[in-house]
C-alpha cells in the first residue's frame, strides 16, 4: 500500500503537490492515484478531504490520503471537494492502520468511516434526452446507465451535462410530531391524563415525535387526539430527528471506593484493562465518562449487541446529571443512522453508545472509548455481516494512540489477547463481588444419561419452592467432542493432540486445527469400552429431557424463540440465560465447551462458567466428565489470574494468539486451480518471517468442498501482507479467475 507523504511546512508549496487519492472501490488491485489540485481548490484539499476525481473517464468519490510532488506528469485534476463527507487526518490514519493489519482494501476501511447508506455509484438526470425513460431529477445507478446507454453514451451524456455525479444519503422518513400551541393553556382540571400529557409536552418547546411522546408518558393516542381537537396541541409531519436523548439524572450514582480511584486514573489517558463485575458495568461507565464530560470532551461506548446498547443508554440517561446528550447507534436504526452520523460529526452528541460499527464514527473531541464486555465475539464482524473484520477492542486501542484519548476495556474475564498484550495496556485494581453462589460439580463419568439424578432432583425442588432455574445448553445440536463414558478419555487428533469434532451427518471426526479427518471409532483406545458418547446437547433436546424427567412446564429462551419464560425451569442458550439473574444456574453440558477443538474454546468455556457464577443468586450446577479441568476449577472460584497462568503457556507452546498472529485463507473452486494458485503464485511470494500450512480440504456450504491454509507469523502486519497476497491470487492468469478467496486475519476462532 502506498504511504502518504509527510505534512507540508508551507502553504504556498501546496500548488506544486499532487493529491494521492484512495478511490472508494473495494479492491486490492487499485492503489491510491495521483491527481493535480486546481488552483481554485488548493486551499480546500487536505489529508482526509473527500474529493470527486475521474477514473477511466467517470467521476468517483475518494479520500485524500497524502501528497507527493507533482513533477512533469500529465495528471487529471480533482473535480470537486465534498466538505460534508471529509474525514480528519487522524481518522485517515486509523483507516490506514486497519488496512495494514487486517488485509482489507483501504477503500473498505475508509468507507466504514463515512456515513452509512451513502450512495456513491449513481447519477442524477438533469436534461433527459428524447427517448429516455428517466425524468429530470431522477437518480439512476451507473450500472443501469451503462447498460442502457452504453459506455460511450454514458460519457457523452455526462459531457453534455445531461447527467451529473450524485452522492446520495438516505433521507429520514417523515413522522408525526406534536407541539403545544402558543395560545393560553386550556382548562384540563377534569382531564388528568390530558393535563399530564400537556405538561410533559409543554416542557419541550420544539415538540416531540408522537411515538416517543406516547412511549415516555404511557398515555394513549385518543388522549392526544382529544388535546388536538381542543386546540391545545398541533400535530404535523416532519423529518424524523436524530435519536438523541437528554440526560435526566439528579445525581451521579456513587461507585465503590476502589472503582472511584480507578476511574480517575483511566480518564487521564492511556489504555486500561479493568476487571469489573458484569452487573456493575453500567455504573462504572457512567462514573468514568462523567469525569470526561466535565472536561468538555466526548465519550464513545462500544457494546456487543443492540440490547446491550439500549440498556446502557437507558442507564446513562437516568444516572448522568442533566444537560448531556446521549445517543444510541446500531443497525436497528436504519435510515436514522445517517442523520445521527451528521449529528455526531457536528459535535451534537456528548455520549455515543453503539455496536461495532460505531467504532469508526467521527467523534470530534474524543476523550475516552469504553469497550464493554471486551472479549465478546460480537465486537468483531463475521463474513457477510456489517462492519470491519477487526475486533472493536483493537480499533479502540488504535484510535486511542492516534487521537490521544483514553481507552478502557471492561470485563471480569478479559480476553487473553488483551491481558497479555504488549501494547502498553495497563491493568486497574480488580473490583470484586462479595456475593458468591454455592457450587456443585456433577461428575458424569460412567453416566449414560444426559441429565444426572442430581440435576433432576434440584429441578424438582425448584418447581416445588417456586424458584427460577436457568439451564444453559449448547445452541447447536452437533457434537463438539467424543468421550468414553467409562474412563472419560477424549478422542484426540493424532497430529496435534486436539479434541476431534464429530461432523453432523457424515459420521467422521475432523480436527479444526490441522484438517485431519478420520472415522468414528467403535471403542475407546484407552480402556477398550464401546460406550462412546458424542457430547454437545441442543436446547430443544435438553428441554424435552427436563420435561420428561420433572413432569413440569419448561420454558425456552433463545434469540429466535422465547416461550413460557415465567416457568420455574427455562432452557436456553448461554447468551440469553446468562444475561439475566436466576436462583439457580445449571450448565448441562460443560464438556461441549471445555473439550472443543477450536483455538479459543478453553477461554470461552472459562468465561461461560465464570458468568454462570455471576448470574446465579444461590447455586450453580455443572455437569462434566472432566471435573478437574483447570478452566472449570478456576472459573467456579472466580480466579482469573490462575486461569491465565495455566492457559497462556499452552497458547505459547501452540503458537496461538497472543504469541503469534494468524490468517485463515479459504479457497473455493476447482482443486487443480486452487493448488496451482497456492503453490505457484502464493507460497513463493511469502516473506521469510511468516509460514503457511499445507492445503487441507474441509466441507463447505451446500456440501461443496473448500480448501484452507493457515498463515502464521510473529508480526501482525507481516501476516496481513501475506493474506493480502492470497486475496490477489483470484482473478489472475492461469485459470484463477474461477477462484474465490476469503481472508480472515486474526480471527477469534480457527
Q: What key phrases describe this protein's structure?
A:
750 residues; alpha/beta; GIY-YIG endonuclease; 6 domains; 8-stranded mixed β-sheet; 7-stranded mixed β-sheet; 36 strands; 30% helix; 24% strand; disordered N terminus
Give the overall shape, derived from the CA principal axes.
globular
- The overall average pLDDT, rounded, is 86
Name the structural class: alpha/beta
Number of domains: 6
What would you note in describing this structure?
With 750 residues, the chain is an alpha/beta fold. It folds into six domains: 11-112, PriA, 3(prime) DNA-binding domain (GIY-YIG endonuclease, 3-Layer(aba) Sandwich); 119-168, no CATH class; 174-239; 246-427, 3-Layer(aba) Sandwich (Rossmann fold), CATH 3.40.50.300; 438-651, Rossmann fold; 661-745, 2-Layer Sandwich (Alpha-Beta Plaits). 30% of the residues lie in helices and 24% in strands. The chain is built from 21 helices and 36 strands. An eight-stranded mixed sheet has the order 12-15-16-14-17-18-13-19, sandwiched between helices. Strands 20-31-30-21-29-27-28 form a seven-stranded mixed sheet. Strands 2-1-4-3-5 form a five-stranded antiparallel sheet. A hairpin with a 6-residue loop joins strand 24 and strand 25. Helix 1 (89-102) packs across helix 2, helix 4 packs across helix 6 and helix 8 (281-294) packs across helix 9 (306-319). The longest helix is centred in the N-terminal third of the chain and has 18 residues, at 142-159. The protein is globular, with a radius of gyration of 29 Å. The two termini are 27 Å apart.
